[in-house]
Amino acid sequence: MNRQSILSGGVFAAAVAAMTWTTASKADTTVVESPPSGTATVAAAPAAEREAYTGPNRRLIGSGLVTFGLSYIPAVIVAGTSDTSADHHLYVPIVGPWLDLGDRPGCGGAGNIGCDTETTYKVLLVADGLFQSIGAITTVWGFLTPERREVVTTAAVDKPTVHVTPTSVGTGYGLAAFGSF
Question: Which residues contact 47 (CB under 8 A, 6 or more apart)?
Answer without folding.
Answer: 154, 155, 157
